[in-house]
From TrEMBL:
The keyword Membrane applies. SUPFAM superfamilies: P-loop containing nucleoside triphosphate hydrolases. It comes from the Eukaryota. The keyword Transmembrane applies. This is Nicotinamide riboside kinase 1. It comes from Neogobius melanostomus (round goby). Keywords: Membrane, Transmembrane, Transmembrane helix. The chain crosses the membrane at residues 184-203, 241-259.
């Protein structure tokens, strides 16, 4: 079974849900898992010294349940779609045999167990003043307290973004400690075989919505279309450039992936 997982993260009121919904409408055999649906009951979310509820923290979310649901999709995306009332496409068109999961949320790149699952990562940004204005027009339950944005939401966004960037840096550092052939092998295994990407594409949330959708849609389609020939490409690369022990490792991995995708 061929699958692609797309992560759409970013700041509050940046346009994550809008982009995810519109993208899902254009991609066959796709569905959305939204992080906002995994909040814990309000009664168990802690309050800080200023009286602000600590919603913008991983501890306020059932991340274990979210991960379980994503793994459930990975084990059987067709069954997962049907349970959500979505029928898999039966028509023959490019990419129609590939199932796509769109994971959307404000902390989806801060949870390490999820970070290794994404094929594509997009992070939407908007300026502070626009974000604050948009937030003020939204109705939340419970509603934001006076001073909540400046006293909690924005500082937590900066903190969480810094942690996300540090997490990406920590993962990337491994590539600089070994010789070139090992680095190439490790890169192929993590980025292509395990289908994980550590670098997020940062998007301008003020860009025209249609243009933003078009650019992301085209980028995701390239990943979908490339899913079929990826194993063959890996095999050819390993035979041409690596050779010896590393080539054998890649060959075994290619055979394993080919078997698991059938």
């Amino acid at each position: 079974m061929k699958t692609v997982i797309v992560g759409i993260g970013g700041m509050t009121n940046g346009g994550k849900s809008t982009l995810a919904t519109r993208l899902q409408q254009q991609i066959p055999n796709s569905c959305i898992v939204a992080q906002d649906t995994y909040f814990k009951d309000d009664s168990v979310v802690p309050v800080d010294s200023n009286g602000f509820k600590q919603y913008d923290d991983l501890d306020a979310l059932h991340m274990d349940q979210m991960l379980d649901d994503i793994n459930l999709w990975r084990r059987g995306p067709e069954c997962f779609l049907k349970k959500r009332g979505l029928e898999p496409m039966q028509v023959s068109q490019p990419g129609s045999d590939v199932f796509v999961l769109i994971v959307e949320g404000f902390l989806i790149f801060n949870y390490r167990p999820l970070n290794c699952l994404y094929d594509k990562k997009y992070f939407i940004e908007i300026p502070y003043d626009i974000c604050k204005t948009r937030r003020s027009t939204r109705v939340y339950s419970p509603p934001d307290l006076p001073g909540y944005f400046d006293g909690y939401v924005w500082p937590m966004y900066l903190k969480n973004r810094k942690e996300m960037e540090a997490m990406v840096s920590d993962i990337g550092e491994v590539f600089f400690h070994y010789d070139m052939k090992f680095t190439l092998t490790l890169y192929i295994f993590t980025v292509i075989i395990l289908k994980s990407t550590y670098i997020a594409v940062f998007l301008d949330g003020l860009q025209d919505k249609d243009q933003l959708l078009d650019s992301v849609h085209k980028d995701v389609l390239k990943t979908i279309e490339g899913r079929k020939g990826k194993v063959a490409l890996l095999f050819e690369f390993s035979q041409t450039f690596l050779g010896g022990f590393f080539s054998k490792i890649i060959t075994i991995l290619c055979l394993f992936v080919s078997f698991s995708e059938k």
